[in-house]
Write a structure and sequence with these properties.
This protein is about 30% helix and about 30% strand. The protein is of the alpha+beta class. The protein has a three-stranded mixed sheet. The chain starts with a strand and ends in a 5-residue tail after the last strand.
Length: about 70
C-alpha cells in the first residue's frame, strides 16, 4: 500500500527538495492513522512514494522515496 506525495515544480530538483522532514512526518502520521482505522492494512507492505511533475517531461515516480516512521 503506497502513500504517495505528488509535487509539481519547475524542476525535478526543486520538486524533490519540496518533500522535507515536516512533510514526511505528516505523511507518516496519515499512514499510521489509516492503519489504525483499517487494521487489515498492517499486514501489507507499506511504503512512502513520491511523484514529481515538471512542465517539460513525464512525471517521475519514485517508489519507496521515504520511510514511513512508526510503521
Amino acid at each position: 500500500l503506497a502513500f504517495v506525495e505528488v509535487k509539481a515544480r519547475p524542476t525535478l530538483v526543486s520538486a524533490q527538495e519540496a518533500i522535507g522532514a515536516a512533510k514526511r512526518r505528516g505523511i507518516s502520521r496519515a499512514a499510521r492513522a489509516y492503519v489504525s482505522r483499517h487494521p487489515w492494512a498492517a499486514a501489507l507492505v507499506l511504503r512512502g512514494d513520491a511523484v514529481f511533475v515538471t512542465g517539460l517531461s513525464w512525471p517521475v515516480h519514485l517508489p519507496d522515496a521515504f520511510p514511513l516512521d512508526g510503521l
